[in-house]
């Protein structure tokens, strides 16, 4: 091994944390600072660190841990109770942006039929903007004390479900562009994977429950959980051509109702934020290609952001209206779903690995996260302060 | 990156933890089980996993974290108060085994003069058996309730100091066999490194103390600490040809009196035991070459273990006698210092990387850890139960 990796990791975690804190201080999400840190120390600016295989392994484990933690943090009860309404908001709230992103790319660069690369690039543009960032939405609602209102519960429920739908869409898209374009086989593999994941998840859950009862709060619980997560990530990608993060997320959901789930989550969280997580986000900055940022791409980025925000409000608002909410509440729900975060970056990253997305589009995704994270709380505050009181 | 790394890591951490627990159940140290796990899944037995660059990076960060944690856990006050007696016990307790290991190799395979490889191999044999395992010693004494007796304090103090002396010896030996054999230059580099480490350590300590006062118990404290540790490890190896673990250990000592040291230590500990630590020990098993275990090497191993145990008792016992302890207490101190642990493996590992030690000698080191860890508590119990009461 090359000893320089120690230097790389030291610089990356220090710069990511320092710029993350700076970002938070000026009101932006921490991840924005972490990405900027990678951008600055990378080839785009001072060229101190270049991406290498070891950094990529750390980054991949970082995103696997993030999705595993997201799975572990899933509140199954809340998901079930908000039920159909949240599901419909999530579903239409995924489909409209998906179509919007696809159409936007077509309008800019021409439409293409499958299995051409251009077709999948367009699909990826749509996929990137499907998933709402749960964490930012929750933070915004909780700050205003509207988290437990009916509108709030629907938003959070939908934000959780739309992560799952978003991941299924991502899986389909990656499966489609990875294989020979045989969509039937891809769908079969997806169904098969979720079936097997369900069975294995149930068995492992039972085994962990038994272990947890005998040895609560011992190191073996989080370690075996992490081993299960890594194994699921591997199996998903290796045998089902499904994104490894989907496997990690399923592993998290399988273990999200253990007695020691919080204990496991805490340890995954610490392992993640000490090293892997910051490196994942910094790595995105390292890979972001600023030299390709032409006026044309900048124009595309602005339209991309507008599309992402508007399609989410329309899709989710429409679904809320169908579910019987009035105009004000439908607008609140639509606006609450606008935030994009880690998942958008993860999807973009996956598109890059799959070879259908160019890193020149990364700045557009990063800008989307910044803009949506700043705008959503402002718009929500406006919508909740005017008109009737939310219940 | 190759996705198989996820599989490798999953298997390694699961097997290491499972066999580690099994080892503990039958009264052996956990690390023994972790090493066996690597041995079993590696080329020696079922050949499921082979060492690769990514695993080596994880293993290296694992040992860096272990040594950083050891540095953080150092009790500077205890070290100062037990003072001269502990220092003398440590010093003679390092020199006698060093000479013993060197002589043993010479007797078996012939003596050689520097700068031949054989000379340094012999020196490494001695270096491996210099450092007492603090953790096992403390556990044994505390189990018997003898930790705070004068004999206990001297043993623990000496065990801590002998880690430092052991690392200096290791640094000299690695420097000697790595460079052109110019011992003067090596010593100059060592002195220069410790001087610079002292200055940088002081500056970083002051900066961290300031940060800690303003933002206690925040993520930035452990993250910046880890970045400092990695940077020190890199600087040591890259610019001073000093082992990276020495740099990590110094970084730990520099930060061992922060208000939040326990907070940092806890997070390093979790990061370590969740992934990096088990992989370090399992990696030793992966690299252990059982095919080379001939009768001749087995014979050498037995003599090696006897040498390691006897030289420690003689060295430390003699020093204790010089310091004014009577025969019984001198024997107790000598016996208490017999345990070897992680550091012996770390040194062996360093010898392998430096190209002067063959992996065929790994079984001897592993056997030494097992035997000494099992024998020491038994002997101590015997020596403390007979004769006068310890005070």
The whole-angstrom Rg of chain A is: 20 Å
User: What is the tally of helical segments of chain A?
Assistant: 15
Under the CATH scheme, which architecture of the largest domain in chain A would be assigned?
Answer: Up-down Bundle
**Largest sheet data of chain A:** none
Using the coordinates shown, work out and report the CATH topology of the largest domain in chain A. Answer: Na+/H+ antiporter like fold
SSE inventory with pairings:
The structure is a homodimer of 391-residue chains.
Chain A (H helix, E strand, L loop, with lengths): L3 H22 L4 H12 L11 H20 L3 H34 L7 H12 L5 H11 L5 H29 L4 H32 L5 H21 L3 H11 L6 H27 L7 H28 L4 H10 L5 H12 L8 H24 L6
Describe it for me?
The structure is a homodimer of 391-residue chains. Chain A is an all-alpha fold and 391 residues long. The mean pLDDT of chain A is 87. In chain A, helix 4 packs across helix 7 and helix 4 crosses helix 12 (295-322). Chain A has two domains: 4-51; 56-280 and 293-385, Na+/H+ antiporter like fold (Up-down Bundle), CATH 1.20.1530.20. Chain A has helices at residues 4-25, 30-41, 53-72, 76-109, 117-128, 134-144, 150-178, 183-214, 220-240, 244-254, 261-287, 295-322, 327-336, 342-353, 362-385. Chain A is globular. The relative contact order of chain A is 0.17. The A-B interface holds A 1, 3-7, 9-11, 13-14, 17, 21, 53-54, 56-57, 60-61, 64, 219-220, 222-224, 226-228, 230-231, 233-234, 237-238, 244, 267-268, 270-271, 273-275, 278 and B 1, 3-7, 9-11, 13-14, 17, 21, 53-54, 56-57, 60-61, 64, 219-220, 222-224, 226-228, 230-231, 233-234, 237-238, 244, 267-268, 270-271, 273-275, 278.
